[in-house]
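Reading a protein record of the kind used here takes only a little practice. An example makes this concrete, so a full record is given next.
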Amino acid sequence: MANASMEEFEALLNESFEMDTPDEGSVVKGKVIAIEAGQAIIDVGYKMEGRVELKEFANPGEVPEIEVGDEVEVYLRAAENSRGEAVISREMARREEAWDRLEKAYADDQRVEGAIFGRVKGGFTVDLGGAVAFLPGSQVDVRPVRDAGPLMGLKQPFQILKMDRRRGNIVVSRRAILEESRAEQRAEVIGKLNEGDTVDGVVKNITEYGAFVDLGGVDGLLHVTDMAWRRVNHPSEILSIGETIKVQVIKINKETHRISLGMKQLEDDPWDLVGAKYPLGSVHTGRVTNITDYGAFVELEPGVEGLVHVSEMSWTKKNVHPGKIVSTSQEVEVMVLEIDPAKRRVSLGLKQTMRNPWEVFAETHPEGTQVEGEVKNITEFGLFIGLEGDIDGMVHLSDLSWDQRGEEAIQEYKKGDVVQAVVTETDVEKERISLSIKALGGDKFAEAVGGVKRGSIITVEVTAIEDGGIEVEYEGMKSFIRRSDLSRDRAEQRPERFQVGDKIDVRVTNVDSKTRRLGLSIKAREIAEEKEAVQQYGSSASGASLGDILGAALKGDDEK
């Protein structure tokens, strides 16, 4: 019996030793028995005591809350040091405890509480109740944070993104929490909104394409084209950050939670009255708002803009950039050419408010009017002359000179020469003015041969004798009679029988206005005279000789 009792006592003693002697590297419970020199002396049982710095009992930035008699958990690093004390750590105990807790939270995808206490490269350090985690700069907030000062030391929830106990790495996010609560808030706000609602909002951000408006926990986009009926070049023209504005909900995308807003929808659409206010053909004053390669946009009133196409800008300036004709903000008079209410388009004309310069020229310069202008251009087919009204007239090669070929005559002109010419034709529709320089002194040939027709008998003066015939002159116009036309009688077809200054009667065989030449013949006159004599005094069948007939004809002439 005694032996049994001893065995039981030994078993109990061994059990008590096992219970009271904790393993090194484990977390044990202890009691604070004293606080001295900034340290807490803790009894961890089995007559083992250790010291822990007081700061290990405090959260970063906080005062330690520890008193004698408090029970605390510490980490037993070693059972005894050189001084015979246990080597213990509150911080390591907290870390072990924290890792257990955090791993569970990470597995359950739960939030954890912590406080940002330091700044490191690329982000911040966060105390998660004993374990230190890394908070990347991009995970601090939904928008970039310039000053993280107000967030330091503040207890707040975080989401664990990644953790590795072996390496001691934990990565957390504050942004994920904000986005989640923001999404809940958005869903709640969006649930109360309907398309067509008018709500108040605060302008949070302005970009080139619009403004983001806070509708009380959810942002909506107010696009620049929905701010006003008129053209808005940049949203900052009419909005400023922090301003409270009234907007209408245009569209809500329930899946993406995107909200489109409008301001102009709260005002009357000026296009409803455009047709009545701007009838076709009416002239109005507008302001140039934008200039492009193909024309200029002119604002007739806020919200109503029309396009002056480049082809409708000037009567005379063709293939010129619109920016050389008008400038932005310039006030101009325009005519309404076309209205398309469905496409919200107005076609305007600038040149239509001024008279067609070709019409004006045709009225003020009828055919035959003498004009003066500068040679603007020389081409292979003539000269272009600058005229009144900023328009050009053309002198064709054939209208340069009576005597020279056009190719020769054009050599006498150069750009910048001031010349005189006569208007020969104005085609308003084709915007073409024909001029003539050779017609300045009148048409000498036409004046000289005005009454002369083919078959006429005229008197000419011999001016030169040549082998092939004779040169003669009629009213200042030179002609040449060939040897074969000098007489009906071959023996008399000798040029030398004539002398310079002789006056002779000839018959006109041709009037060529193009070459400005008269075809003349003595032979043709003689044949015509014989024919006439035969008809008047007899015929070849009567038996009368030609000498008798001509004699009778000549006698008749003498009696007259």
